[in-house]
Design brief:
Chain lengths: 415, 564
């Protein structure tokens, strides 16, 4: 009796590790051999080229509900198209953008690490202006007509920038606020009311730290309401006018911060963190960019039923988010098929279901037949905002505002 | 023996390779810091990025924060460890044995998991606040207090201290046999000294030089940690290391240069920390020389002993309570403040995460197995070669250098290098990165056993005509089964806990239990974070358990071969 059990353990460990490593190598070999011979105007050629492909789908990964939805996507695509979906969960979409830029700089033109990316706003503007996107392709996907772009210009305009077929609409978002009726009697119906409310309810409101996107969205919402010249926000920002135009915003924030959670000395890192502070009863007022956030969170035991959603009287910021394919994706066919599937009535209805995700569809329901329309019927569950009660979305400012706003915020409050 | 001449040469190749990787990592970060990185369009040397770096909001606060947390963490940890050792000196060895038993599993808890446990214990809506409320505190809602993520980095230091004290304790226990503690203490006692005071005056100055290097490692680690600072550190601004990591992930190209400046600055910050520590050492040394001969035999003995025991006891309790609170959170249904326990219990968090966990578990384990095996082979070659050539200080320095240089410094350099060489991030790069941290620990752990090995066994075998390989594989290594297994276990837990190397070199495409758990930290979803960090913490524990069990099974009939 000498050593054999250890030897066996070590041996089997080596074999297991070698096999799983081999599968790594095998999948990257797939990438290279995958020839991209398909015609965009012949969708069946795209579908056949997509078979057996591996898709690196890059999305912000901070929300478990969304991650589970993408797991479901993986199962569906495996079943129907034999496409393997690898979900790359980003702490910030910017991580993937920097990777694509670095690949371009390193002359990696056909074996990039990102195949499909969830994107909008300044990230899209950056990639598009640097010619780092594949396309135009969006208008060639069979499901594109469902968005009815003639009636919904938002489906082809991203933060004032025309999409020109370089990205496909995926989700609709709009800023909604929510309050815990068991903890507070009132809730502010405008940004300017918010200041008084925060004074009356000290330490019970905060916003994610910019440049986190929900935090930046809060800044933009406040800016839109407080700025004197709204039109200026929809054109590229002029550095000379920036300070003067944003002065009312920063006056407001200076006044607000002492009444925030932790007196504004620390800010949550994300919208989900904001939400768990609500659930713990630390905050009694919060906000989200996902229209049915409250309903889906109540359904997932993440918020108590005493939390009520509402929108501001003057309307709130809203936008579309999209799917784009980097220029150097080695699996474009698989990316195209996946994007088209994500815009199908089946996938969009599932996405809108508050018990799954609760993200509003970009499909114009008028384009659907009766049976598909039924998929979108709303169940009435606690925390739902009836979509017909939603005020029209205020369009996003030009993307150039984002960077300057974030810089100014950091300079003022982090130094 | 003549056929093993190549061993020292192979060992040198390994060591030079090792040093080469680290040096090129460091160099690669210096060039872009001064503007030179042709792959990203930087073709001339400039100081612009340094100017931009120092103009970025809150940067001096970030640097100061890194320095103060590191010094605070190390000073408190070292003080507690010394007071504790002084307080238990002279007590029966059962206590020491008990503490040693507890140390291994506690040390195997990854930093991130321990930090999450700390967070969920001490945050205003954490377990302690819930248990005390509303009866003792009168709080019906969580108070608006800065107990964690405070701008002064105190909670960050706390989260580090609960990991560094067990580490320093283990190191101290392993070198104490080199000092003749019992005889010195007996002498001190016969001169009328209280045991604790005697220990502090006689043993402490002998112990300190022996654990100086691990203390430096603690300074380096706590001045440059990324994962713990992300979880427990402030964010207005964050510590320097966190800012550097964020710059490396910024979409704006110019930020990559500033990130490199940040990495260089991190190296300098850590140097400053080491420098300040060195000055503190000098001051204490001076003060100590008068303390040791002031003739006081009892003064503060009881208080010192009490503080030592209390602090280490607390550290152990916090570690264990941290795991406990992770378990509760991972199976909690809705849990409203200030209820002591969740209103409902559920397995959904585990079930929902199951697929994702299995997937990254497989990745984590494959990387760990490959890394650990390579590391063990390298370490055995180096140790065998050292028998022939005697170990040099340079070799030791090379092997330990990854623990003495801030990770952000050379790992980010390796990222720059991979961009330069047009290598896509992949799992092999990650394994390489892990090796840089697994090898030093494996060397540390196995080296001790090699030193203690009785070479007369080998002489005996040689006189019986056995070949080198036969002796190595049939006598020496089997006799070293127990230390080999505990080295394997330690190496595994080091590989599993790697965050920065995996995140930066894998560019997010290689997701292990650790990277996933930390990616979730920004979600603030306690349930899910708990599920993932529990898996992260349990994995090394399981492996330690295996390392304990295997010798028991294999050496059923040989009691001495089992782990003490």
């Amino acid at each position: 009796m000498y050593f054999p059990s250890i030897k066996n353990t070590v041996l089997s460990a080596v074999v297991t590790a070698a096999i799983s490593l081999f599968s790594f190598t095998a999948s990257s070999a797939d990438n290279q051999s995958n020839t991209q011979d398909f015609q965009l105007n012949d969708w069946s050629s795209v579908e056949s080229a997509s078979h057996g492909g591996t898709l690196y789908f890059n999305t912000w990964g901070g929300e478990p509900k969304i991650n589970r939805y993408i797991q479901w996507l993986g199962k569906e695509l495996k079943k129907h198209q034999n496409i393997t979906v690898k979900h790359v969960k980003l702490a910030d979409t910017a991580e993937a953008i920097s990777r694509i830029i670095a690949e371009k700089q390193a002359n990696n033109t056909h074996d990039g690490s990102v195949d499909l990316i969830w994107i909008n706003g300044e990230n899209f503007a950056a990639l598009k202006s640097a010619n780092l996107l594949y396309g135009p392709w969006a208008e060639s996907t069979p499901n594109f007509y469902l968005t009815n772009p003639d009636k919904n210009p938002a489906a082809i305009t991203d933060f004032t920038v025309p999409t020109e077929g370089y990205e496909l609409p995926w989700g609709k978002a709009q800023l909604i606020f929510f309050y815990d009726a068991s903890l507070t009697q009132s809730h502010p119906r405008s940004v300017s009311n918010l200041l008084q409310w925060a004074k009356d309810n000290p330490g019970q409101f905060t916003y994610p730290k910019p440049p986190q996107f929900l935090g930046t969205t809060f800044l933009k919402q406040a800016l839109i309401e407080l700025v004197t010249d709204k039109q200026a926000l929809y054109a590229p920002v002029k550095a000379a006018e920036f300070t003067q135009l944003t002065a009312p915003l920063f006056d407001f924030l200076d006044a607000l911060h002492p009444h925030l959670w932790r007196k504004g000395k620390v800010f949550p890192n994300s919208g989900t963190e904001l939400k768990s502070l609500m659930a713990d009863g630390e905050l009694s007022l919060g906000f989200s960019f996902s229209i049915q956030e409250v309903a889906s969170s109540i359904a997932n035991y993440e918020l108590p039923e005493s939390v009520m959603p509402y929108t501001l009287d003057g309307g709130t910021l809203g936008n579309y988010s999209f799917l784009a394919i980097p220029f150097n994706s080695p699996n474009k066919a698989a990316a195209l098929v996946a994007a088209n599937f994500l815009l199908s009535p089946q996938a969009q209805a599932r996405k809108q279901d508050p018990s799954v995700w609760g993200s509003s569809t970009v499909i114009d329901l008028e384009q659907l037949n009766e049976s598909d329309k039924k998929r979108f019927q709303q169940k009435n569950i606690p925390g739902m905002i009836p979509l017909q009660e939603l005020p029209p979305a205020i369009p996003e400012p030009h993307p150039s505002w984002v960077e300057l706003l974030e810089q100014a915020w950091l300079k003022r409050y982090q130094s | 023996m003549s056929n093993t001449k190549w061993l020292p040469r192979l060992s040198q190749i390994f060591l030079y390779g090792f040093a080469g990787i680290i040096i090129s990592g460091l160099a690669a970060v210096f060039f872009p810091a001064f503007g030179w990185l042709p792959a990203l369009g930087g073709t001339e040397f400039t100081l612009d990025h340094w100017i931009a770096f120092f103009q970025s909001p809150g940067i001096t606060k970030s640097i100061t924060l890194s320095i103060t947390t590191a010094l605070l963490t190390t000073a408190i940890s070292v003080a507690c460890v010394f007071l504790f050792l002084a307080s238990i000196s002279g007590s029966n060895s059962l206590i020491q044995k008990f503490i040693l038993r507890l140390l291994a599993p506690i040390l195997s808890i990854p930093h991130a998991a321990a930090a999450f446990g700390f967070l969920f214990l001490f945050s205003p809506s954490g377990l302690i606040s819930r248990w005390l409320s509303p009866e003792l505190t009168g709080w019906n809602r969580p108070p608006d207090l800065l107990t964690v993520q405070d701008p002064w980095g105190l909670s960050l230091a706390g989260g580090l201290i609960i990991k560094e004290i067990p580490f320093l304790l283990l190191v101290a226990f392993s070198v104490l046999p080199q000092i003749n503690v019992d005889r010195s203490l007996k002498l001190a006692r016969s001169l009328g000294y209280h045991t604790t005071v005697g220990w502090l005056k006689v043993i402490a100055p002998q112990l300190y030089p022996l654990i100086r290097m691990p203390i430096f490692a603690v300074l380096v680690f706590s001045s440059s940690t990324v994962d713990v600072a992300l979880i427990l550190g402030p964010n207005l601004p964050s510590t320097l290391s966190v800012s550097v990591t964020q710059w490396f992930n910024d979409p704006d190209l110019s930020q990559r240069f500033i990130a490199s400046v940040g990495a260089v600055c991190q190296l300098m910050t850590t140097l400053v920390v080491l420098g300040i520590w060195w000055i503190i050492e000098k001051i204490i040394q001076r003060g100590f020389s008068s303390y040791s001969v002031n003739g006081e035999q009892h003064r503060f003995a009881v208080i010192a002993a009490f503080v030592g025991r209390l602090s280490v006891g607390l550290v152990f309790i916090i570690n264990i309570a941290g795991i406990f609170v992770l378990i509760i959170n991972s199976i909690a249904g809705f849990w409203r403040f200030p209820n002591n326990f969740p209103a409902t219990w559920t397995a959904t968090h585990f079930l929902n995460a199951q697929t994702a966990i299995t997937e990254s578990l497989l990745v984590t384990l494959s990387i760990a197995v490959i890394t650990v095996l390579i590391a063990i082979v390298v370490v055995i070659v180096v140790l065998e070669a050292e028998i022939q050539t005697k170990s040099s200080r340079i070799n030791k320095f090379i092997i330990y250098s990854p623990l003495l240089i801030p990770q952000v410094g050379f790992i980010s350099g390796l990222v720059v290098l991979s961009i330069w060489l047009n290598i896509n991030p992949n799992v092999y790069l990650v394994i390489l990165g892990h090796l840089l941290f697994v090898i030093p620990y494996a060397y540390l752990s196995l080296g001790k056993a090699y030193q203690a090995f009785d070479h007369r066994w080998l002489q005996l075998s040689r006189t019986l005509g056995a070949s080198y390989w036969k002796i190595l594989f049939r006598i020496k290594l089997p006799m070293l089964t127990t230390p080999l297994l505990s080295t394997l276990a330690l190496a595994f837990s080091v590989s599993i806990a790697q965050y920065l190397a995996t995140q930066l070199l894998g560019a997010g495409r290689v997701s292990t239990i650790t990277t996933e758990a930390i990616a979730l930290s920004s979600s603030g979803n306690r349930r899910l974070i708990s599920v993932w960090s529990l898996c992260q913490a349990l994995l090394p524990c399981l492996i330690y358990l295996l390392a304990l069990m295997i010798p028991k099974l294999v050496w059923r009939q040989r009691k001495l071969m089992q782990l003490r």
